[in-house]
Specification:
- By secondary structure, the chain is an alpha+beta fold.
- 42% of the residues lie in helices and 24% in strands.
- It has 6 helices and 6 strands, in the order αβαβαβαββααβ.
- Strand 4 (94-98) and strand 5 form a beta hairpin.
- Helix 1 (2-12) runs antiparallel to helix 4 (78-84) and helix 5 (123-130) packs across helix 6 (136-154).
- The longest helix has 19 residues, at 136-154.
- The protein is globular and about 45 Å long.
């Protein structure tokens, strides 16, 4: 059951870890470039590489929003962490965001983690997660309600307006803006 929970956490959160050869090559190259500019991290391990969402179109779109600094947050359900007996994301954790095909696009660092009921998500947070200033809260609620409800139904859990959302705020730290 624990493995099932972890699998659900990774699959249903809309992020997929990358394990292919191309990802390793581009992630390693990106990390090496980052280290060359930030030698204080030379002893740090290569961060996890992943893409947002579960399809090519959205994964590539979201990676581009991270690169251009518009997407600065990500959301998952607290119940997934609880079910997987996994720790919540930690401030300072670095990750490599990729395209759907596994090409490294950016390095991000978690700056803030909150657990907030679905119905208390703010427009400011929704804008950071959706990467748009055009009706961000409406878009966030529609997209996340549909995604969360469908994912929860598959595991026999009912979605509610009070369900807890793990809200990660991050900063793109590489590549630097020009």
């Amino acid at each position: 059951m624990r493995n099932l929970g972890l699998i659900l956490l990774l699959l249903l959160s809309g992020c997929k870890e990358q394990t292919g050869k191309e990802t390793d090559t581009t992630a390693n190259a990106m990390w090496a470039n980052f280290i060359a500019s930030h030698p204080k991290f030379k002893e740090a391990e290569l961060p996890e590489a992943f893409y947002f969402h579960d399809n090519e179109k959205d994964a590539d779109r979201l990676a581009s929003l991270v690169v251009n600094g518009k997407k600065r947050a990500s959301s998952g359900l607290y119940v997934w962490y609880k079910e997987a007996k996994a720790d919540l994301p930690m401030i300072g954790t670095k990750s490599i965001v990729t395209d759907f095909d596994g090409t490294a696009r950016a390095i991000i660092e978690i700056k803030k983690v909150d657990t907030i009921p679905f119905n208390k998500i703010s427009g400011t947070y929704a804008e950071m997660d959706m990467g748009t200033s055009i009706a961000p809260l409406q878009k966030w609620k529609k997209a996340h309600w549909t995604f969360f409800k469908g994912a929860l139904e598959q595991s026999g859990v009912q979605a509610s307006e009070e369900m807890l959302v793990v809200c990660e705020t991050f900063e793109k730290i590489w590549p630097k803006d020009e």
